[in-house]
Design brief:
Number of domains: 1
CATH class: Alpha Beta
Helix content: 25-40%
Distance between the termini: 27 Å
CATH topology: Nuclear Transport Factor 2, Chain: A
Order of helices and strands: HHEEHEEEE
Radius of gyration: 13 Å
Strand order of the largest sheet: 2-1-6-5-4-3
Structural class: alpha+beta
Strand content: over 45%
Number of helices: 3
Length: 107
Amino acid sequence: MSILATYVQCLKAGNASEIAALFAEDAVFHDEAPAKFGLDPILVKGQKNIESFFRQTFKNGGMKVNNVGINGNAMRYDVTVGKTVLLCLGVAKVENSLIKEYRVIAV
C-alpha cells in the first residue's frame, strides 16, 4: 500500500498518531484549502506538531474524505467539513519512506 493510501486510511479512522508516524521528524504540512473560506493557510512544521494538529482537528469534529484517487505521490480527494465539500489536490515529497512535505490546495 502506498504512503498516501495509508494516510487516507488514517484520516478516515481519525488516528492522529498514525498520521504523524507517516511524516519525517522535520516534515512540513501546508494546507491552502482554508483560503476557500477566507481563512489563512495552515502551516505545521515537525512530526509532533503535525500529530497535535490532527489530534485537534479530529477532536473538533474531523473531516470526511471521499472520492480518493492516488497517482504516485499525488492525490485528489473530496473533503467534507460541516456541510461544505472541497475538491482537494495533495502532493507529497517522500524521503526514506516518510512524508517530508505535504501540500494541499482546494479547487
